[in-house]
Amino acid sequence: MSAGASQLQSLLPRESLLWIFAAQLAVLLPHTMHLPNWLLGAWVIAVYWRLEVFRGRREMPGRLAKLLAVSLVVAGLVLTYRRWFALEPMVALLAVSFTLKNIELVSRRDALLSLMLAYFLAATLFVFEQTIPYALYGIVCVVIITAALVAQQGRRSARPGRALGLSARLLAQAVPVMLVLFVVMPRLGPLWAVPQNTKAASTGISDSMSPGDFSELSKSDKPALRISFDGAVPPPEQRYWRGLVYTHFDGRRWSEPDAADGYPRWGRGRSNRRGYDGAGSERALPAVGPRYRYQVIQEPSHNPWLFALARPHSETRGVRETDDDTLVYRTPVGARLAYQVRSWPRESVADSGMSAAEQRRNLQLPASGNPRARAWARARFEEGLDGEAISQALLSLYNRSFTYTLKPPALGADTVDEFLFSTRQGFCEHFASSYVFTMRAAGVPARVVAGYQGGEWVEQQEYLLVRQYDAHAWAEIWLPERGWVRVDPTASVAPERIRDGLQSAAAEEFMQDALLPLHKIAFVTRLRLQWDMVNYRWYQAVVSFDSERQEGLLRRLMGEISPLRMALFIGIPLLLALLVLVVWLKWSSRGPALPVASRLYLRFCRRMARAGLPRNPGETPGEYAQRIECALPRLGPMAVRITRAYERAAYAGDARAEKQLRRLLRGFWPIRLSRQARTQVQT
Amino acid sequence: MSVQPIQSQTSADAPGVKPLFRARWLRWLNRRLPPAPTMTLDHRKLFVLPTGAGMGLLLVIFLLWLLGTNYENNLVLALAFLLVGLLVILPIHTFANLSGLKLQRVETLPAFAGDYGQARIALGKTGKRHHERVQLAWPPEEGVQVDILEDDLREIRLDLPLLQRGRVRAPRIHVQSRFPLGLFRCWSWVDLDVEFLVYPQPRSAGPLPYGASVGEGDQQKPFSSGGDDFVGLKAYQPGDSLRHVAWKQYAGGRDLNSKEYASGTDARLWLDWDLLGGRDVEVRLGNLCAWVLEAERAQVPYGLRLPGQSIDPDLGAAHRHKVLSALALFPVQGVSQ
Predict the structure, then answer these.
(1) Higher pLDDT, A107 or B20
(2) Is A635:A674 a contact under the CB 8 Å cutoff?
(3) Which of A470, A516, B245, B249 has its CA 20 to 30 A from that of A361?
(4) Active site includes A472?
(5) Within its chain, how far is the Cα of A307 from the centroid?
């Protein structure tokens, strides 16, 4: 008997099965973006099978069927993923184990295991995305999983309203603990190298530039960078966010030097760790203070390069400076990344000449092509002009007869020649490319710099929002006495592009291909900026909350961080919570409220008990009053009056008697009375 | 049916407690939760610990923390901390679910040894709080599960397998609940001072010993099927066997009469201890018990003769209880309980 009953009790009823499936579906749905589609199909089949078993139409799968299912799914995983040490296959593996568990979901134990897995899978969602919508969805998931746990407690608990309500209530009560832990728990930093999200395509500026790349970028209004300043803010025409330096030109395409040139991207970065012996850094920081201090929050680009003003230095872990005056990250930026930068004024750093290799790199030109540009440059050189004068001549040429457009005519084989002498319409990349080519042809070391220019203030200059359409390319030339000097040929054609941004420089063409011209509606623009603001705050407060910010916050909250204050910081909320709890327990274990008269009478009884004459169990008020009269004659008449008033108030519903009872009790202090009696006896 | 023996003394089956500590544990429990017919569960009587699933969640939290730390992902960490919060508040809810539950022993029904004894226990609230998914059991029995909701006073029946006759004190009742998430369990070992009166296990001893009496000297031949010497009619009295009612005469329009039979000197049925000489005490008691049941079934008034004790023949539930109690409480000889 007992064995049968226990099995019956541990078998999963319908509602608890359905709840488990609901929780699994909630967790799996957003994962379909990263996981192969057949996984969802496999899940549906597993669930269908389990429900058929529940209806009694099918048997629980045998060992052979289970083996087959496992090998099928593993084969699917092997075929889908080539690399195993990556994020997606691991999450997929988790989802698979979850799916396969369904076909042998028999006991309560299995159900609980499945739900624990669901919690974990819900968390992996955040590894892919940390945006507000995902966070909200994550909360929904956790509420549903917890509701599924509630539903395992039987039919009454499995009703949707009750399960969800109870789950939400429990989680809401857990939130204070979470907040305290979130603020207090130390962030250790990665304990070991973990696989990163690798699948996503890179966005934004790429490692090469050919005609048309930047006009492509100008169609996107996605955010690229958010920059907040600490102190001085550079004027609009100085906001050049340098990302990459292209020095190699093959006649059409500008690119970074090849890794084959002994130029690995991360390797060329200087370590920013100084500390072992002080000589770890090759370049000492300038003696004068930095001009700008700022924090850049970069959207995931899946590229390693970062963006900063010229002469940057960053202490953020994983960020290095390069010889090209840019910053790189140790891995491609797969999630939002925040880094602190200090930038020095260009003049403060004396460039210590240029090595022969560097000079060769910055004068490199293809062997042939673009003869007219070369001829023009040679003519300027033979006129005896120095680098600065040649640059001036070229810029005034642009200024005289060139137009700035997002839709330039297509260029043939000699891109520079055609642009300089026939089409004369172009975008920043055309100007930068032709400028650098010509300068090099004239013997002046020059390079193309790609990055973003400008940005839009959000919410009273809290931060600068730089979008993809702010992508820009400009040039730098080497002047022997001044070092690298920034020259923006676009500025001489369309100064408003630099001052006010792309939107005002190319108002006609700006975002023409957008499905809805939302940028033209002021209200929508404002709303979008506000949404960006919310995102920014979210990122600042939650996503990028690291040990440094933690320390800052704790210092703000506690003044200074000491063990005692820490203990108080954790202990006081804990004690408060316990107190609230105890009060709640007491309150909720109280019976229904008594009528006023009874409460008053009970007070009388309590006072009598304190005076040494408690009421016996089962004693009627009348008997009690008599006993008091006998034992304490002094109190007797009063006790009788109180009892009579109580009886009238309680049984006859006499409101006047109730008032009288209250009045009588106010003056009834048996301890004092009996003590007086005793002292009288003594005297 | 295989049932594990249960000691008739107070025993709370604390799993995993070695015998050495068991006595101490029971002493401590007796001090902390003294037996009482009515008991309200409160913080002194309840224990809370995580279940296996609760430990599982702890493991999940640790893994989440590793994930969040390695990926420097604050949302994963926040989820881990939220689950920690859940683990912090859950024991309180689980405790509150049982705290304030009032248990009251109502009565116990006598039973035969080898059968299940049943105790009726009333459950109620002392406050406004509900008590959900409360399991009561005498482990290793299954027990029952009840919900005490809005102004609910529930009476439940708990079964306990009984092996020995006599007065048997029930072990402590295991009251447990895993509400609301099954991650913590709150439990208590409650002693409601439940005592069973256990009749001996009936052992068949052949037909009823009509007319048999031992030790009178004038030994008569034992009648095989009751007295069959018809003596006459007498007025029917309640309690008379229906078999002996003179139905024929009644149908003929006369008063309800019983036929009177005589069998030898003493026509009444005496279930005598001495009739079963030479057998073991417990077997004798079992045989007597079987006869009692047989006589009740046959509606034959019967009396009981035990050493130093005699109950005059009669019929009916009260008489049966009296006789069976005498059998149940017959002193145990040689075997110390």
Answers:
(1) A107
(2) yes
(3) A470
(4) yes
(5) 20
* B143: nearest CA partner in chain A: A2
Quote the pLDDT of residue B137: 92
The β-bridge relationship of strands A403-404 and A425-426 is: parallel
* Preceding omega of B140 cis (within 30 degrees of 0): yes
Bridge partners, A464 (sequence order): A227, A457
B90: tokens are 């859950």
Q: A436-471 b/e with 16+ CB inside 10 Å = b?
A: bbbbbbbebbbbbbbbbbbbbebeeeebbbbbbbbb
Condensed to tens digits (0 to 9), the pLDDT of residues B42-94 reads 888 899 999 999 999 999 999 999 999 988 889 999 999 999 999 999 999 99
How far is residue B263's CA from residue A515's CA, in Å, rounded to a whole number? 115
Facing residue for B83 by CB, picked from A6, A119, A135: A119
Coil, strand, or helix at residue A270? strand
Which tokens hold the place of A370? 């673009």
**Would you say residue A134 has pLDDT above 90?**
yes
* Listed residue (A438, A437, A436, A466) closest to A449, CA to CA: A436
Strands A254-255 and B184-190: unpaired
Assess whether A488 carries a catalytic annotation. Answer: yes
Bridging pattern class, strands A446-453 and A425-426: unpaired
pLDDT in tens, A236-294: 888 999 998 888 888 888 888 765 454 445 554 544 433 333 333 445 566 666 788 99
Longest dimension (CA), chain B: 105
CA-based nearest residue in chain B for residue A591: B127
Going by C-beta distance under 8 Å and a sequence separation of 6 or more, which residues neighbour residue B163? B3, B5, B6, B113, B114
pLDDT tens for A331-357 read 888 778 889 999 887 766 666 677 888
Residues of chain B neighbouring A335 (CB-CB closer than 8 A): 73
Q: Is A288 exposed, middle or buried (0-12, 13-18, 19+ CB in 10 A)?
A: exposed
Cis status of the peptide bond prior to A332, with omega within 30 of 0 = no
Residues of A in contact with B89 (CB under 8 A): 170, 173-174, 177
Give all strands (DSSP E) within A247-382, no chain letters: 248-249, 254-255, 292-298, 312-313, 319-321, 327-329, 337-343
Strand partners, A479: A483
Which residues of A fall within a CB distance of 8 Å from B126?
A: 589, 591
Looking at residue A672, its pLDDT comes to 60
Q: Which of A264-273, A592-601, B104-113, B221-230 has the highest mean pLDDT?
A: B104-113
How far apart CA A241 and CA A454 sit, in angstroms, is 8
Of A116, A194, A589, the CB nearest to B71: A194
Distance from CA of residue A218 to its chain's centroid?
26
Task: Say if strands B38-40 and B101-109 run parallel, antiparallel, or are unpaired.
Answer: antiparallel
| Sequence-separated (6 or more) residues with CB below 8 Å from residue A575 | none
Given a contact cutoff of 8 angstroms between Cβ atoms, the answer to whether B177 and B131 are in contact is: yes
d(CA A636, CA A647): 16
Residues of A in contact with B186 (CB under 8 A): none
Joined together, the tokens standing for residue B297 give: 């079934």
Taking CA–CA distances from B3, the nearest residue in chain A reads: A2
| Among A108, A601, A175, A126, residue whose Cα is nearest residue B133 | A108
Side-chain half-sphere exposure of A494, counting CA atoms within 13 A? 23
Angle between helix B74-98 and A132-151 (nearest 10)? 30
Rounded Cα–Cα distance for residues A576 and A584 (Å): 12
Q: Please indicate if any CB of chain B lies within 8 Å of the CB of A157.
A: yes
* Residues paired with B125 in a beta bridge: B101
| Amino acid at residue number A412 | G
